[in-house]
Amino acid sequence: MMLSDFATNFTAQFVALDIIGAIPIYFSLTHRMPVAERKIMVNKSMLVAFLVAVVFMLIGRQIFHFMGIEIFDFKMAGGIVLLLIALAELVGVPEAEKNSSGSTGIVPIAVPIISGPGVLTTIILQASTSGYLLTTMALILNYSIAWFVLRNSNKIQKVMGKDGTLIVSKIGCLLLTAYALSMIRTGVFETIHFWKGH
Predict the structure, then answer these.
(1) Contacts of 104 (CB under 8 A, 6+ apart)
(2) To bridge 138 with a disulfide, which of 9, 38, 79, 163 should be the other Cys (CB 3.0-4.6 Å)?
(3) What distance, in Å, lies between the first and last C-alpha atoms of the chain?
C-alpha cells in the first residue's frame, strides 16, 4: 500500500513538474550562458526550488489562509510573471532577459518553472492525504531527476547544435507563453467557480 501511494504521489508530481517539457523553456533562458555558469545556476535553482516546495508543503495552507490568498490567486500571479518573462524573451529585450533570469537563477527557473503553482498545489494536497514522509520522498526523487536533466542539458545542446538550440529556445518561449496563459486561464475559471459557489 505504501509503495502504491508513493508511486501515485511520484507520478502526480512528475506530471505537474513536467521537467521534459521545461527543457525548451530552460534553453530559451540560458542558451547564452557559459556551461560552467549554467551548472552553478542549476544547482542554486534546484536548491531554492526544493526549499520553497518543502516550506509550502509544511505551511502553505496556513500562509494562504493568513494572507487571504486562494490557490487560484497564486496560479494567476505565477502566470502573469511567466508571461512577462516569455514576452521579453520573444521580442529580444536584453535588459528584460537579464533581469528575468537573475544572477542566481531563482526567477524564473526555481520559481515558478520548477516549483510552480502546479507542483506546490499538488504537494500541499498530497501532504494532507498521504502524509509528509511519502510526499517528501516523491519530491526528492522528482527534483533529483530534474536536477540531472538540467545539469546535462549542455550535452543535449551539443547534439542539437547552435541553430537547433536557438530554434528550440524560441519554441520554448512560445511554450512558456502558452503555459503562462494556461495558468492565468485556469486561475480565472477557478475564481469564477469560487464566487459562483458563494
Answers:
(1) 41, 44, 45, 48
(2) 9
(3) 38
According to DSSP, residue 131 is labeled -
Return the residue matching grid coordinates 542539437.
160
Instruction: Classify burial at 170, counting beta carbons within 10 Å of its beta carbon; exposed 0-12, middle 13-18, buried 19 or more.
Output: middle
The amino acid that residue 91 corresponds to is V
Helix, coil or strand: residue 198: coil
Looking at residue 192, its amino acid is I
Contact 191, 50 (CB under 8 A): no
Rounded-to-integer distance, Cα 21 and Cα 125, Å: 23
Phi and psi based region of residue 84 (left: phi greater than 0; alpha: psi -120 to 50; beta: remaining): alpha
Q: How confident is the model at residue 43 (pLDDT cuts 50, 70, 90)?
A: very high
Task: Please name which of 41, 38, 17 lies closest in space to residue 157, comparing C-alpha atoms.
Answer: 38
Give phi and psi for 115, each to the nearest 5. -95, 75
Long-range contacts formed by 155-158: CB under 8 A, 24+ apart: 156/23, 157/27, 157/31
Minimum mean pLDDT among 12-16, 52-56, 61-65, 77-81: which range?
Answer: 77-81
Angle CA 59–61–62, to nearest 5 = 65
pLDDT tens-digit series, residues 88-121? 767 765 434 444 445 545 678 898 889 987 788 8
- Residue at grid coordinates 516549483: 115
Q: What sign has the CA pseudo-torsion 32, 33, 39, 42?
A: negative
